[in-house]
Write a structure and sequence with these properties.
Helix content: under 10%
Shape: elongated
Number of domains: 1
Structural class: mainly beta
Radius of gyration: 18 Å
Largest sheet: 6 strands, antiparallel
Number of strands: 6
Mean pLDDT: 87
Strand content: over 45%
Number of helices: 0
Low-confidence stretches: none
Distance between the termini: 20 Å
Length: about 110
């Protein structure tokens, strides 16, 4: 079991006007995502941040932050926990928090 640092960076955009304005109310959309993780031995931890923007009729913005942890006690078994918080300026979806707990068993 080794150790290491990893990074993920993603950016995407959508401009329906450039594609002929498909749909009843085209809007520009963008999504930015960043994750940094660290693994050492049987333990791994990661922090991720994301932001989504929708510009046009009904402009909205949302952010997400997550902290996750994975413990691998055996070759085929993983135990995980994560906390995720999402904020949005969309009516009725202002703030959502979630705690995830679980396990994965890999069958060969």
């Amino acid at each position: 079991m080794g150790m290491g640092l990893n990074f993920t960076l993603s950016y995407s955009t959508n401009d329906p006007e450039a594609a002929g304005g498909v749909g009843p109310a085209p809007s520009k959309q963008s999504l930015t995502y960043f994750k940094v993780g660290w693994k050492k031995g049987k333990n791994a931890v990661a922090l991720s941040l994301g932001e989504a923007k929708n510009q046009g009729p009904g402009t909205s913005e949302a952010t997400a932050t997550a902290l996750s942890y994975v413990y691998k006690p055996a070759k085929n078994v993983e135990l995980y926990a994560a906390y995720r918080q999402q904020d949005s300026d969309v009516s009725g979806l202002s703030k959502v928090s979630a705690l995830h707990l679980g396990s994965r068993i890999k069958w060969k």
